[in-house]
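Hi P.,

Sorry for the delay on this. The queue was packed all week, but I finally got your sequence through. Input first:
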Amino acid sequence: MSEPRIVIIDDNVTNLLLMKALAQAATGVVARTYDNPLPALAACQHDGADLIVVDFMMPHMDGLEFIRQVRTSALCADVPIVMVTAAGQAELRRQALEAGATDFLTKPLDATEMKLRTRNLLALRVAQNQLRDRAAQLADEVRAATAALRDGERELVARLCRAAEFRDPETGGHIQRMARYSQLIARRLGLDASTQEQLLVAAPLHDIGKIATPDHILLKPGRLTDDEMVMMRQHAEVGARILADSKMPEIRMGCDIAAGHHERWDGAGYPLGLAAEAIPLVARIVAVADVFDALTSVRPYKAAWPLAQAREHIAAGIGSHFDPRCAQAFLDAWDEVLAIRAAHPD
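Then the structure:
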């Protein structure tokens, strides 16, 4: 911690020398002295101070105006300020307190009083500075610990997604693209940055329930039978059960996504047949992103669709399969969609 700064302002040079000597004797600090309040004000506003002693009667600017102006500086908003006044000036002292004065000294100066007030006020200021610095240090430590915890939580989410990838024919490229498409839609809808970031992390959990889907169904190259389709569709409910009741916001969001990304705006989806805004917004967002990327990706049971055909499919599903706002936000960001696709190939 740097040495405390004491600033003394008085147009009388003899008084300046006396107060400087008394302050140094009381605190061990060599005060900075000014016989003109204007450069003193500029110095305080630029460098701050830990204790200011200012005379009332001065040319250019009296002590009251000095206090008013120095208090407007963030560096001096709570610095102890002692005003030096003549005896019997009760109204002046009231005005000084209103302006922001902390304490007073009376002319002629009493040496013992000057030393005691200077020592006590500076000690209080130093203690305040130490408390502030400690609070800032603790805040930094809390931020670092919180960031480390969040990193650990997001690593856990990423590893859950990686575990699912080992069983799912969908590639890591699909996971990255649909997550970024989802984030893009969220941004275009005006969702806050925190929600966008959480969605980027949570969206890849949409098919986590496929861990429980048998390989002969999950990897089947041809069309699924009705019974197989029933088993395949169970992955939405299974995913929700896997992710349920988490304290982590990304996993809670992932639970909503896993449960709802196969619901449809018109209520014809699964597993619950929810419609419109009864479907969580994040699930409605991911539905658009997931369908588009699934259509434009190779699967064991199909070839990739051309981009234009997939775009037309999304547009045709507005108001039936897809939330109109989510689908339109996706289509309106087409250049960004293409950039994401190019940046994350299979």
